[in-house]
What does this fold into?
Amino acid sequence: MPLRLIFRNLLKHKLRFVLTVAALGMAVFLVCVLRSLVVALDAGVRAAKSDRLVVQSAVSLFVDLPLSYETKIGSVDGVRTLTQFKYFGGTYQEEPGYFAQFGVDAGRLLEIYDEMEIVDGSQEEFARHRTHCLIGKVLAEGRGWKVGQRVPLVSDMFPRADGGPWEFTVAGIYRSRSSTVDESTLFFHFDYLFESVESGSAEGPNGAGVYAVLLEPGADPVAVMRDIDAMFQNGPQRVQTTTEAEFNAQFVTMMGNVPFFLSMIGGGVLAAILLAVVNTMMLAGREQTRDAGVLKSLGFTDGAVSGVLLTQSLIVCLLGGLLGVAAALAVSEPLAAVLGPNVAGFALTSEVILQALLISLALGLLAGLGPAVRARRLEVVEALRAEV
Amino acid sequence: MFVPLSYNLKSLLVRRASTALTVVSIGATVAVLAGVLSLQQGFETLFKETGRADVAVFLRPGAGSEGESGISREKADVLKKSLAEIALNAAGLPLASAESYLAVRMRKLDSGETNVPIRGVEPMTFEIFGDQIRVTAGQRLRPGTDEVIVGRKLTRRVRGCQLGEVITLNTTPFRVVGVFDCEGPFSSEIWGDLDRIADALERPVYNRVIARLKPGLDVQAFAERMADHKDVPVKVQTERAYLADQTGALSITLRVIGVFLATIMGVAAVFTSTNTMLAALAARSHEIGILLSVGFRPIPVFLSFMSEALVLGLFGGVLGILITLPLSGVETGTTNWNTFTEVAFAFRVTPQVMKSAILFALILGLFGGALPAWRAARMDPVEALRRR
Amino acid sequence: MSTLIELSGVSRIYTRGGETVRALDNASLSIEEGGFYAFMGPSGSGKTTLLNLVGGLDRPDQGTVVVGGSSIDAMSGAELAHWRAENVGFVFQGFNLIPVLTARENVELPLLLSPLSRKERREHARNALELVDLTDRADHRPSQLSGGQQQRAAIARAIVSDPRLILADEPTGDLDRASADGVLDLLAKLNRTLGKTILMVTHDPRAADHAGFTVHLDKGRLESVDEKVAAAGA
It folds into this structure.
């Protein structure tokens, strides 16, 4: 394989080479980002733990389950422990930007979500005082918050009687080993919320939100789900117990066709680029007609000569693919930070990278096919007569 | 003197393949942008254009949407009966109605779940909106009964919404007795009797009050008065303003996605068209040599090639719009992130979308043609003539 | 002297736009090994066609072409390519060097088809370049070489894999007088000292003077084969 010839041919028209690789790079970059988005949307579903269940109202996500359900659910066979999970909907006044907050059972949170790992501060500190909270690593880094940081939150759902904000203090920072728990969330004591509403120092719905349940090892999830649902069949609030995977999936299906559209767009982008690369390769093929004739006259087989053009196409596309992947990698962390609270788990996985590179190779093959076949079929004598 | 446009047009026709390629490349990029913008336009117009300026929406102060809002029965009564700003119907009764609102979990016809808004209404609601609400099948719901009517768009997307079917809310069954249509988001809702719904869902408070306002009222002043009202402080907006607020997050997101995609694909398209035009140029260097030697100055030559690029951009833009047009009217649905409810809307390829598309296409053509045109203008006529 | 090439009843027919052209019509010819043959005749006489057939660049429609005992008309495409690499070196009127490679790299190109190592390839190329007296310009690209230098590079490329046969199609057609003479002398030297069989198509009667045999063609037919008689007293 005349490699030197191949590389020289590619660099003969430098601007054309650079533009083609750059255009490919952009397309592959886009595909990587779109694919990562789709993967992220599914991430929570795929990573879901099979020993966790979520008990929610059968009617609506927005209906709280009664507090009395806690002991009742806890008594079901197979349930090891559980926590309330109440969405707070607060805003941090000083700096806008959304992040989720949940009121939970501070003592049991980390037992149930054992993928959470405290990297700063401690679980004991968090449990010690009602106004302490736990924040995710991405949230902490994004806002420069450290242990001890005061986080005043104002919630439309839970206005305080004194008109002021809810005061929380960061007692710990966690990271998650799995995409089931995102690192942009703030967890606080559900008890704090409950007692404030009970005593009148704040207004708002006095329910537990949903319950997250940890199963005993070896318990049958299906049986437990059935038992919990049956327990509340006659109210006051009917429940729907699902696996954690199903619970996360409902958010994904809510997105409706969005993932589908994203994939379609990715496909459209690739198609447009493919056309462009095909044209460039065909042009190069035509320009190298005489060279092909020369090679054949020297004794290179038809296959070898077509291989030269195919290799050129593969190199261009692979370079473009690498460029696109590199760009996506460079951008993925900042992008994840921006998307963080809304799309958890956005990351450029090795799966996506591999897919991107394979797609680049496929593009290279497709684009090089036409010129390669043409070169194969060239009659030496005709080819030698071609203009350069 | 200027190079006649006919020269450029003829050249484009002669080099059909590369012309077609550039046009398709620009067209695909424009189509993607237009597609996303049409999605956003469809979503926005659903809300923005259907809100009425003569209907006021009363919410709890600080509530961003009726889902977050709560108005007690007593307060609702006071609002309905005591405000002079509310218009009266023929019988002298205030055109005001209390409503409850909850996003209820239901299964989609294809797969997965979604949240459907259930609205408890009073008979006065129908009077307030008059002809806007049309029952297209079955009959209106009778007050005080466990009957519901469903918005037309739901019949095609959500299970259990056909005439005669029964929807169970918590533990109470409600029968679908009619299908109604309305421009605007109501057509994705299920309506039932206010108090029956509130009982079934165990909602102790209502969500909002709506009222038809007397003509000529200064809504802004009214809102300011009501914000500080000593008995019933409320947030007042026209229905139009309220709906506009609901589009927030999703609308912006779609716009952002559209711009992001368009930029990346646009850059790739510019690279591609530059490449193609450069190649076309190289093949026409002899012609350019002739043009220059015959007496055309560089600037007219530059303008000539720029106009060629603009024509390519124009064709690409038209192609992109043509590709996107079939989408217009296609219904899709996703979750409105403000209210977390399913909202069905149609793609709308509005004049604004088309304008943006053409503008974008022309810009692509401009950027793509700049370098080749510049090179053409700077060619040395003697060199150029020598080639071929 | 043995027969290297045997053409028997060879015809090559083209159909161009409804018309049939007999580029070569029932030609039979024997070429002796180590001979230097000049093929002459007016345009369209079939000289180049004959050269292409002998070199395996084209296939006859009728007849056989036997070179060094092998019937090349019966070979498959891949076999022909392989045979060409081992047995033939081409020199063209338009030089046909690959523009993106230097003279040295062009000369090395045919050796990529051989099992030689990189070092050996460089060695052989160096020798070939020395032979054609192009060592000092070897690392320049064709665009930086004069016509004569390019042709010499092409000749070096033609002999680098030590083929038995050199086929030259109007090798001096694009050269000035001085360069042309240089090239012809070179070819004659290759024939004399290395025993290469050379078939050269030419318009130039002076070129023919360098050859030992002159073959005349007209309208696709072989007219005559004249052997050059050594000048008396030379």
